[in-house]
């Protein structure tokens, strides 16, 4: 999520697409009962500093319901060995001690908040290509959760972390080891920590909505094998997934269910991208192979907190328009979604630090809209 280049997405849909008549598939996903009906999610720069400045966990305002600690990163791309530590004092003069940090975690939890370890980011490429790497991932992530008393895991795999092998064309039955092992690892962690384990994901549009046009390298090869590569992970874990917040930023134009390209930065982009998650969408243009919709309570919209935080900044007015359209079918502009979802969970942002730098504009807009 930090210092990333925009994804260049170019594709044309093969065949006409429609979602009319698609019946949402029932999901057994457990409700995130501990979360409020509308939640604010933010990443906290915990292991590094940048131009936004360091923010102590204890200083994060109460409006933030899920705080993702950025980042846990691997010792090498394929080791599965995830490490996390607080920002060095030389880089972050105001960093708290480990005991102070652990106390802040407990205080947030006592106030009903969730604190998660986020794995990946731009610099943390993770490829679980072997069962040994899978088992190391489970052990090392579990050790981080236990050490700091965290609530769960956020998967922010970017770059080349997820890529589908040639011939792996069915998102419901993946064959690629890095995908299969990730699914297995997360299920193992969920089984270890039980129903209270909070699982979130923050894929980029390239790995999710682009799957509507292209999936992996395609039946004839030659396509980017990363296209839609998160779909089998989301699908396999939908019953365990607390929240999916796709990054609607650092993205190229993406085709929506209206067969039109939508560009980041305005309300229509968020409406079109979120509609795909809530209505379901044909994968690789095949209307007989549909990625089933998620529950509205499992979905939040991911945005940059400010113009400094990443490409695709959306003004508070346009964020409000997107929310109105998706929850009330008002203010819809050029894109009309396939329903109204008042139970849409909320918003995610990169990041708490950048929002503080911007005088809490993102948080204030969320609070104003949902009555926080």
From TrEMBL:
Which positions make up the signal peptide? 1-28
- Recorded GO MF terms: chitin binding; endochitinase activity
Biological processes, Gene Ontology terms: carbohydrate metabolic process
* Every GH18 domain range: 38-372
- Taxonomically, the superkingdom here is Bacteria
Name the InterPro entries for this protein: Chitinase_II/V-like_cat, GH, Glyco_hydro18_cat, Glyco_hydro_18_chit_AS, Glycosyl_Hydrlase18_Chitinase
Give its E.C. classification number: 3.2.1.14
Q: Which UniProt keywords apply?
A: Glycosidase, Hydrolase, Signal
What class does this enzyme belong to in the EC scheme? hydrolase
- Give the stretches traversing the membrane: none
Query: Does the record bear Metal-binding in its keywords?
Result: no
The family classification in the record reads:
Belongs to the glycosyl hydrolase 18 family.
Q: What is this protein called?
A: chitinase
- Species of origin reads Streptomyces inhibens
């Amino acid at each position: 999520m930090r210092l990333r280049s925009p994804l260049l997405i170019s594709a044309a849909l093969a065949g006409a697409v429609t979602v009319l008549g698609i019946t949402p598939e029932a999901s057994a996903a457990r409700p995130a009962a501990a979360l409020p009906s509308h939640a604010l999610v933010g990443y906290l720069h915990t292991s590094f500093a940048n131009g936004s400045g360091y923010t102590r966990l204890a200083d994060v305002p109460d409006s933030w319901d899920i705080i993702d600690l950025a980042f846990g990163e691997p010792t090498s791309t394929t080791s599965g060995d995830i490490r996390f530590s607080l920002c060095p004092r030389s880089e972050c003069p105001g960093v708290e001690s480990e005991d102070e940090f652990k106390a802040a975690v407990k205080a947030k939890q006592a106030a009903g908040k969730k604190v998660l370890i986020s794995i990946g980011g731009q610099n943390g490429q993770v490829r679980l290509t072997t069962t040994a790497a899978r088992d190391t991932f489970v052990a090392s992530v579990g050790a981080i959760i236990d050490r700091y008393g965290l609530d769960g895991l956020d998967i922010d795999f970017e770059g080349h972390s997820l890529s589908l092998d040639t011939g792996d064309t069915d998102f419901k039955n993946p064959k690629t080891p890095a995908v299969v092992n990730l699914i297995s690892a997360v299920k193992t962690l969920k089984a270890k920590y039980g129903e209270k384990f909070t699982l979130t994901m923050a894929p980029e549009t390239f790995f999710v909505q682009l799957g509507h046009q292209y999936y992996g390298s395609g039946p004839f090869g030659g396509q980017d094998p990363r296209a839609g590569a998160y779909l089998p992970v989301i699908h396999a874990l939908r019953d365990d997934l607390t929240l999916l917040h796709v990054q609607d930023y650092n993205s190229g134009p993406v085709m929506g269910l209206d067969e039109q390209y939508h560009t980041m930065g305005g309300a229509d982009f968020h409406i079109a991208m979120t509609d795909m998650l809530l209505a379901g969408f044909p994968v690789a243009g095949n209307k007989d192979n549909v990625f089933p919709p998620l529950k509205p309570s499992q979905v939040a919209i991911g945005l940059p907190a400010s113009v400094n935080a990443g490409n695709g900044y959306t003004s508070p007015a346009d964020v409000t328009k997107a929310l109105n359209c998706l929850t009330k079918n008002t203010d819809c502009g050029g894109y009309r979604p396939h329903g109204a979802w008042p139970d849409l969970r909320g918003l995610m942002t990169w990041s708490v630090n950048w929002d503080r730098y911007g005088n809490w504009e993102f948080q204030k807009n969320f609070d104003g809209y949902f009555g926080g």
